[in-house]
Design brief:
Blueprint (H helix, E strand, L loop, with lengths): L6 E3 L4 H10 L4 E3 L3 H4 L12 E4 L9 E3 L3 E5 L4 H6 L6 H8 L4 H6 L2 H6 L10 H6 L3 E5 L4 E5 L11 E8 L5 E7 L11 E10 L2 E10 L3 E2 L2 H7 L8 H16 L3 H4 L5 H20 L3
Parallel strand pairs: 1-3, 2-3
Antiparallel strand pairs: 4-5, 5-8, 6-7, 6-8, 9-10, 10-11, 11-12
The structure holds flavin-adenine dinucleotide.
Amino acid sequence: MADPLSRIMAPQTFQELFSQWALFPDAALCAGGTGFMYGQGSRVPEFPQSIILLDKIEELKKISRTERYLEIGAAVKLSQLIRIGKIVPEALRMSLSLAADVQVRNQASIAGNICLASPGRIPDAVVPMIALDAQYELRTAQSSRWVSAARFSSAAPQELLTRIRIPLEVWSFTHYQKFGSSAIGIAGSGGSALFMMKNEKNILANLRIVCAGKSIFRDKSSEAMLLGKRLPLLPKDSEAFADRWKNYLSGTDSSADGLGEDAQGELAKVQIINFVRTVLRHISD
Ligand SMILES: Cc1cc2nc3c(=O)[nH]c(=O)nc-3n(C[C@H](O)[C@H](O)[C@H](O)COP(=O)(O)OP(=O)(O)OC[C@H]3O[C@@H](n4cnc5c(N)ncnc54)[C@H](O)[C@@H]3O)c2cc1C
């Protein structure tokens, strides 16, 4: 149960937020609050002692679009991004639709998902954000910086993720799959995999495969080997690509990549290879 001395702050501006945070540096940011409940077995979940609610800051709830980018405020709910339709890239909509359940998605925010600290587990929005080359804006009281989704691991102390910028590219085909023993579970108790490709006049103009087990897997050199190939792919090119992925995964150092030499890690590798073979079937002779 919440400590009677707990403090809940609800700033309306960034300035208010950072001055409250300076007074209570241990306070945790809380967007939807579902991340705090995740994995807690007790009937009454425990929350940090001091909380800064983000839902009064209008700036964090905005979604805007330019010719080149979609910008999403940190506190935008997962369900809103799913509902909004085609301006949100299909890869992101697909992954969010499979995150948690509808009640959680109505409550949970996109930045809460990205910033969820859950060791060995990759939250669902992370894979599409990396594949889509998203950038995150992070602010402190004094400064702001942009960091690519591929390089982001966590916000620094007293740092707020404010918005997400996603380049608006047209992808001809997107396929996303979440693995795992339970439908409601973060990738990591299983994993997830995403394939996106761009077909320009039957030439494979761009492709990306990003997968998550307990960590992220992306082999840019295998992507490069298919670029410029005519579609549908020849069986020999598909086979060479699948073999490359197999070698890449088997060559990953389990201590560094976090998959571990356990049954779960091995299963994730098999699922990723099966996923690669499935998407190749879609684009091969
Ligand atoms: C039953 C259940 C099932 C779930 N299933 C899934 C699932 O399938 N896939 C999945 O990915 N997740 C799952 N989760 C975890 C969680 O619901 C999601 O990750 C959700 O998106 C978190 O968003 P939130 O707004 O509720 O985050 P919060 O709980 O508010 O915050 C999560 C963390 O992010 C930090 N944070 C929040 N906003 C910011 C910000 N703007 N800047 C910096 N740090 C910030 C918080 O301080 C906290 O550490 C599940 C949770 C529950 C309870």
